[in-house]
Design a protein that fits this description.
The protein is of the alpha/beta class. The chain contains 17 helices and 16 strands. It has one domain (3-518): Rossmann fold, CATH 3.40.50. Helix 13 (380-406) packs across helix 17. The radius of gyration is 23 Å and the shape is globular.
Length: 523
């Protein structure tokens, strides 16, 4: 018998007995057979369709079932990332060209698994909901697979392909969810995991979902959406906010409480710009006929705040409200959680003077000035960035850690302060997204010849914490500094610092209490 036939037979026998199939490059999922590739003890399957191509009449529709195929489909290269205008400064540049046909999933699994059902870790990339994809080298899942996990990544629609509303679209297929198509893609990918992950040796009952920035905001959506219930058992949010929605709260078809235009209004403005008027079927057909590049219309991280793009919206079916409101109403998922932010994270400064920056603190203005600018530098750029990052990322992470802990569920907060040795002369702290190659243990892909031994050591520990959490719901393990579960009374977190990892009482507590006041959250 030929070696390939032996591998296929072994895979089929393992499927019949409920065993792990990830030792083989040949597997069968619900839509057909796949052939992956093996390297370094890891079997990888890339570019697997999890939904039908969202093109033509399926543009701005919920993801539809992927078509089946006959024969063996090669799964050795990434499918296209979703349509976008790549951002030149992206720390995770795409590895393949983007296209509208983009709903693909990737799986990494151990070549020699230790058990039949391994924990599953599912990654959601960031990029402001307008950029990003699963193909960047720093998102390779091999390190997690070598530690005994089944790792999954996938693409979801971005920009106006993923988050778009228009009166004609709302009337089309009236019973369907509208607007948040990118989120619906994420839910469809998790349902694909539930149906198929056993084929790769994974346990559909032990799924951890994690993401960074817009990916972290997506995890918050999954934690608070009724459509995602039961699809995962644990979650990790890296710099994903936690109070409101990252791009602001807009409603699908009504004006917001502070006069924010509806997402439908933004979509109508885009249609008018494209020369399309009306709210009937003809307008929708014309919108769906627009070339993909015309739909992008220059939108990326540098130009995402435009009246013709809403980003995620409150539609009442997928997104029922902002995360803090859902948890306040007692409707958020109660699952073990890791959450944190970086020491020089992102925030948007809108103030033009120091007085304007501190005015929102009201009666706490003087205390805020003392906390954020103790040396009276008057440096609006530096101080404003710190205030904005606390308000957008750092305090909301603490808020969610507290919220989950108060429900009696373990949560673990971190602060990523580690800066690569080669970047210490340029960065005054860890920028937004800089933790990713450490969590993935892909620092070599990020820093290349500039990689230093301390960088590698930090990556090994970060990857081990995330792996342990995926296995047990607790990040702690042998050889790692203790990471205590979060308690509001002690306010302790794990700090990934340049001089080592350690659990500490949050040194920014005073600042974050002030930032919580801006959100109406108090201490």
């Amino acid at each position: 018998m030929k070696p390939t036939s032996i591998r296929v037979l072994a895979a089929l026998l393992a499927l019949a007995s409920g065993g792990a199939l990830c030792a083989s490059e040949d597997v069968k999922i619900d839509t057909g057979r796949l052939k992956g590739s093996t390297s370094g003890g890891v079997v990888a399957f890339k570019g697997i369709p999890f939904a039908a191509p969202p093109v033509g009449a399926l543009r701005w529709r919920p993801p539809q079932p992927a078509p089946s195929w006959s024969g063996v489909r090669p799964a050795t290269s990434y499918g296209a990332d979703c349509m976008q205008l790549p951002f030149p400064g992206d720390a995770a540049p795409l590895g393949v060209p983007p296209a509208e046909d983009c709903l693909y999933v990737n799986v990494w699994a151990p070549e020699a698994p230790r058990s039949a059902k391994l924990p599953v870790l599912v990654w959601i990339y960031g990029g402001g909901y307008v950029n990003g994809g699963s193909s960047p080298a720093v998102y390779d899942g091999s390190a997690f697979a070598r530690r005994g996990l089944v790792f999954v990544s996938f693409n979801y629609r971005l920009g106006r392909f993923g988050f778009f509303a228009h009166p004609a679209l709302t009337r089309d297929h009236a019973g369907e969810p509208h607007g948040n198509y990118g989120f619906l893609d994420q839910i469809a990918a998790l349902k694909w995991v539930r149906r198929n992950i056993v084929t790769f040796g994974g346990d559909a009952g032990r799924v951890t979902v994690f993401g960074e920035s817009a990916g972290g905001g997506s995890v918050l959506m999954l934690l608070t959406s009724p459509l995602a219930r039961g699809l995962f058992q644990q979650a990790v949010i890296e710099s994903g906010g936690g109070r409101g929605m990252l791009t602001g709260s807009r409603y699908l078809d009504r004006t917001g409480p502070h006069g924010e235009p509806s997402a439908e209004e933004g979509g109508a403005s885009f249609a008018e710009k494209a020369g399309i008027s009306g709210e009937g079927a003809a307008a929708l057909a014309a919108l769906r006929a627009l070339p993909a590049g015309r739909v992008v219309d220059g939108l990326n991280m540098a130009s995402m705040f435009t009246p013709t793009y809403s980003g995620p919206m409150i539609d009442g079916k997928v997104v029922v409200d902002a995360p803090d409101a859902v948890y306040a109403a007692g409707r958020g998922a109660r699952v073990p959680l890791i959450i944190g932010a970086n020491s020089m994270d992102i925030g948007f400064v809108r103030a033009h003077t120091m007085d304007e920056l501190f005015a929102p603190f009201g009666a706490a203005r003087e205390r805020a000035m003392a906390a954020y600018d103790p040396d009276h530098s008057g440096n609006l750029s530096r101080v404003g960035s710190t205030v904005a990052a606390d308000e957008m990322m750092v305090e909301p992470a603490r808020f969610i850690a507290r919220t989950i802990a108060a429900l009696g569920v373990p949560s673990y907060e971190y602060r990523f302060s580690y800066v690569a040795v080669s970047m210490r002369s340029r960065w005054r702290g860890a920028p937004h997204a800089s933790e990713i190659p450490y969590v993935f243990d892909t620092v070599e892909a990020r820093y290349g010849k500039e990689l230093a031994p301390p960088d590698r050591e930090t990556a090994e520990k970060a990857n081990a914490y995330w792996t342990n959490f995926a296995r047990t719901g607790n990040p702690n393990g042998e050889g790692l500094p203790e990471w205590p579960a979060y308690e509001a009374s002690s306010d302790r977190l794990l700090n990934f610092a340049e001089n080592g990892l350690a659990a500490i009482a949050d040194p920014w507590k005073q600042r974050l209490d002030l930032a919580a006041g801006l959100a109406g959250g108090g201490k």
